[in-house]
Amino acid sequence: MDFEKYFELDRKSFIIKAAERYSKEVKRVDEGEKFLQLFDYDAVINEDHLIAAYMNAVNAFDEKSNIAKSIGMETMLFAAMTKQIGEAINMLGAKEGRPFVVFSNSAELYRRTAQMLIDIKDFEPNEKAQKSVALKYGIKGDMKIGMLEKMACSRL
C-alpha cells in the first residue's frame, strides 16, 4: 500500500495553528461535519498526525464504527490512538496556561475562535520534537507509517 497517498490532500482544507496559552474561554466546537478541536501542543507529532486522525474519524463515521458522537472528539480518539475518551482527553486535551494546537476544517469556526487566541502562529514542530512526541506513542522509524498503524491497531 502506498501510504503517501493517504496524506495527499488539500492542506488548505484545514486550519492548523499554534497558540501560546490555553484558556478555558476557548472551547472546542462541533457543528455537524464542521469542527474546531484543541490539542496539547506537546502531544501532537505534526500536521500529518492530525490529518490522519481526522481522515480515520471520517472513515469511522462513514462505516458507523465511530465511538464518539462528534467528528472532533473522534479525531482526538484517533490522534491519541485509543478507544477511551477520558484517556484521549488526558493525553491530548489542551491544558490551562500551556501552548496548544487548534485544528479545524472550517474557516468560519476558526474566525469565531481566533479572537480569543493569544500569539497565534503556524504549527511547525522541529524534527527533534516530532521524534520525541512520536516516541511517547511508541512510534519508531517511519512516522507516517507508524502513526497509521497505531491508529488502526487502536480499534482492534
Layout of strands and helices, then pairs:
Blueprint: H1 3-6, E1 15-19, E2 29-31, E3 34-40, H2 47-62, H3 71-80, H4 85-92, E4 100-104, H5 107-114, E5 121-122, H6 127-136, H7 143-153
Antiparallel strand pairs: 1-4, 1-5, 2-3, 3-4
Give a brief description.
With 156 residues, the protein is α+β, with helices and mostly antiparallel strands.
Would you write up a description of this structure?
- There is one protein chain.
- This protein has helices at 3-6, 47-62, 71-80, 85-92, 107-114, 127-136, 143-153, and strands spanning 15-19, 29-31, 34-40, 100-104, 121-122.
- By secondary structure, the protein is of the alpha+beta class.
- It has one domain (3-153): PF0523-like.
- It has a 5-stranded antiparallel beta sheet, with helices on both faces.
- β2 and β3 (34-40) form a beta hairpin.
